[in-house]
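Annex B. Sample input.
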Amino acid sequence: MKFGLALCATILSLSVLTPVSAGAMGRPVQIGFGGGISVPVSDAKDALKNGFHGQAMVKWKVPTMPLGLRGTVGYERMTLKSLAPGLDGTGSILSGVGNVTLGKSVGPIRPYILAGLGVFNTKTDVTGTASASQTKFGIDGGVGAEFKLGPITGFLEGKLVNIFTDQGFSSAVTSANNFSTQIIPVTFGIFF
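Annex B, continued. Sample output.
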């Protein structure tokens, strides 16, 4: 409900922005920061609760072309589920991802799609025990929209991240069968 209300407020505020030309969404190289909610899906939803994430990005886009490149360093933190009574724990993901974006300005916004490949370090910390981590490759893909906010560019995006884990989120949260670590981060941020 809160997410839907926030999305409606964002769309309403975007509707009052003045149209910008196709090449006016900023300089060719921009630095950005963002954050939001991380929602585990598939097998990961049985091991993790919703959490939060933060990202730092560098993007390169030629103003007259619809194609762009983006590098992202991210951190996600979620609470572990299904632990023994009296035990608390957290799961975290540190990532480095390279993405390709494809989009075109339509009035005051620039909708885009993105896809990428990266390296993900998943780590669990359980109270009273040693932490465990593993590093795996993964892919992501999603949709988003950029919008001009004076001298900066805002963005809102959602994507599906699939980390190629096979026996669990880490050795502390394991499964006898194949384990799919999939997270949907919904991000709001700025480029400048």
